[in-house]
Amino acid sequence: MTPEQQQQFRESFPILQRQVHDKPLIYLDNAATTQKPEAVLRAVEDYYRETNSNVHRGVHHLSQLATEAYEQARKTVQQFLNTRHPHEIVFTRGTTEAINLVAHGFGKSILQEGDEIICSIMEHHSNIVPWQLAGAGQSPNIRVIPMHENGEFDMEAYERLFSGKTKIVAVTQASNVLGTITPLKEIIRIAHSHGVPVLVDGAQGVKSCITDVQELDCDFYCFSGHKIYAPMGIGVLYGKEKMLEALPPYQGGGDMIRHVGFDRTTFNDLPFKFEAGTPNVAGAIGLQAALEFVRLYGHENLIKYESELTAYATQKLMQEDRIRIIGNAPEKAAVVSFLMEPHHPTDVGTLIDFMGIAVRTGHHCCQPLMDSLGIPGTVRASFAAYNTFEEVDRLVESLRTARKMLG
Ligand code: PMP
User: Fold this and answer.
1) Which end of the chain is less crowded, N or C, counting CB atoms within 10 A of the terminal residue's CB?
2) How far is the CA of 169 from the centre of ligand 1 (A)?
């Protein structure tokens, strides 16, 4: 991106004009959620002003327009992930619901007592707890891919985790704490050589990686719209047709049925089998607008700029006294976790908030990872393409001020 394009990109986000504690907002909490550009805000508002109606069941004009817009959004996601069919895209509330949907289905129809699943030490709670809840009786045994000190997967240890009881590998595309981008192609190749399917948690990877699900050959891929400039409350589950066909419905209700009787109900085709009740139509339209906005600037260009920003932040933080970066994998998403020793991350985050800087502190929903590192949490700065190099400088200055205040 040229500096002019970057500025234009930034100016598309109205919230970045606001002040916090009488200081210009410096928003570095993009791994938690990204801000929304004007194009997304407008798409959602226009939908409610001009088209609002319920989908799939109406013969009237507005209902048909809303249905077309909703199904067009599905096609946009299909193109974005390069899935074979649009019906392999299921709209959900987000990554969490998508993983719960798959884990529930596995629990009902596949997992037996004593079965195993493989996930990694750096998984978010939403890729651990749904698997613990799955299964009729005892939850499946979770076998954990360990990591090297720099935050990369230990691939040799991964290969040794497979047994005849392994039913699925569920791994993240990028760690929301360490930033590590995981070697998905290799992970998937190895799992498939054991006849085991793979679910990818794309919550962090979706913005930081170009994802082609057919090239990856993953069996499931989940992401949340709000992590890539779309509204909250809309997300995606991609599943290979035959995998989705094999799973039972997650929730019952309208739209997911073909025929209901008190003694027997038959279910609708994909993807509607998994979309019970009135969907978030405005959210899907907002997601489409967000993906089109990304395409306008070129997803590769945005990723490249974010990488430069992340490298700059890492280098600046490393020059500071007693700042320890947590996670040094060679390939990273736009996330920098660190400790300002000897201070607690919450104290640091609270102080720099008063300087207008929004970072996240704590365990970031990755308690097993924190336990393995022996730390209570980190300070996490995470970037989007609207952030600037000056904002990184301001972050570093604010940390110096915070250190003086903390003594
Ligand atoms: N996985 C990862 C790696 C995440 O970072 C997050 C969000 N912090 C989630 C899953 C859950 O996403 P959501 O809350 O949008 O469902």
Assistant:
1) C
2) 17
How many angstroms is it from 126 CA to the middle of ligand 1?
A: 7
- pLDDT at position 136, please? 65
- What lines the ligand 1 site, CB under 6 Å? 94-96, 124, 126-127, 172, 176, 201, 203-204, 224, 365
pLDDT band (50, 70, 90) for residue 135: confident
Domains, the chain: 3-30+298-402 (3.90.1150.10), 42-295 (3.40.640.10)
pLDDT tens-digit map of 319-378 = 999 999 999 999 999 999 999 999 999 999 999 999 999 999 999 999 999 999 999 999
Alpha carbon nearest to ligand 1 atom 9, residue: 203
d(CA 28, ligand 1 centre) in Å:
16
Evaluated on CA atoms 100, 105, 106, 111, the torsion sign reads positive
User: Which pTM was predicted?
Assistant: 0.98
